[in-house]
Amino acid sequence: MAEAVAEGAWWLHGTRGCNVFLVRTGDALVLIDTGFASSLEGIVRDVATVAPGEAVTHVLLTHAHPDHAGAAEALRQHYGARLVAGAGDCEVVSGRAVLREAVGRSHRMRRLLEWWRGTPRAHVVIEEPLEGERRVAGLLAVPTPGHTPGSYCYVLEHAGLAFVGDLVISHRDGLARPLKWANDDDARYLETLATFAARAPEAGCAGHGPPVTSGFRAQLLGLSRLPRRNPWSPRGAVARLRRLRSFGGAISRKRDTSPEAPD
Q1: Contact at 8 Å (CB) between 253 and 259?
Q2: Does the structure show a pLDDT above 90 at 10?
Q3: What is the pTM of this model?
Q4: N or C: which end of the chain has fewer CB atoms below 10 A?
Q5: How many other CB atoms are found less than 10 A from the CB of residue 23?
Q6: Structural domain boundaries enclosing 192
Q7: CATH code, 81
Q8: Is residue 47 in a domain?
Q9: How far apart are CA 183 and CA 230, in angstroms?
Q10: Pairing of strands 169-171, 174-176
Q11: Which pLDDT tens digit goes with each residue over 130-186?
């Protein structure tokens, strides 16, 4: 069963890829991110447990990477939900906004491999491409470009809770930034992190790893002040390998029960 992380917000089970959250805001029932395509069944099951007989009205994507948006189109069709994502992660195809297929350096190679294998991704239709800061489905949508051009964070203001996608990754020993090569524009990402940290709430849910229920803003501020490590330092290389191993295990594992937080 889904776990409550705040009043009106739940962390779903049965998903694979990224964390998926369900939020109720007035008449809206909102999903934030969707995990891989295989997460559809687990999402539908948990939504039915939390809100029996109700349909998801909106799906808000933090960014276009397939571990966050893989089940988005299927959910749109299943519920008739309105898909929302940053315009910077979209392109226009046949007069409709759809998610760009290759966003960020780490995902361009993946798309090339899929093309070579003959497994193109189906278009994900975005009814509401976001530009600038605005309110959508009862949440404050804040642009946070850098990891991808159209990355967004969503803030549930009454609960003091932010859903931040891959702005940071949550580990057992605290928050960490995505690796430099995983960002589309690392310099822009670092600027965005500092800007968002200055206004972040005290609690936050990252796209990977456990929610942080207090001290989230302070951790973001601390990260925003750190320089990037020397990529050739032995200590930095060991830390990166340890976290990559943890991240790789978590992203491929189905979240059926509360997982042990990654290293």
Answers
A1: yes
A2: yes
A3: 0.87
A4: N
A5: 25
A6: 3-252
A7: 3.60.15.10
A8: yes
A9: 17
A10: antiparallel
A11: 999 999 999 999 999 999 999 999 999 999 999 999 999 998 889 999 989 899 999
Specify if 262 maps to a domain.
Answer: no
- Minimal CA–CA distance to 147: which of 185, 204, 191, 105? 185
Report the distance separating Cα 6 and Cα 32, nearest Å: 14
- Give me the torsion for CA of 75, 58, 67, 175, rounded to 10°: -150
Residue 117 has pLDDT above 80, yes or no: no
Give 117's contacts (C-beta < 8 A, 6+ positions apart): none
Q: Which of 3, 57, 45, 10 is nearest to 156 (CA)?
A: 10
Q: How many domains does the chain have?
A: 1
Angle at 247 between CA 175 and CA 232, to 5 degrees: 80
Q: What is the pLDDT of residue 194?
A: 98
> Cα-flanking dihedrals φ and ψ of residue 148, to 5°?
-135, 165
- Using an 8 Å Cβ cutoff, are 125 and 36 in contact? no
Q: Cα torsion for 60, 244, 3, 202, to the nearest 10°? A: -70
**Residue 230 φ then ψ, to 5°:** -65, 120
Looking at the domain assignment, is residue 50 inside a domain?
Answer: yes
Whether 231 is covered by a domain: the verdict is yes
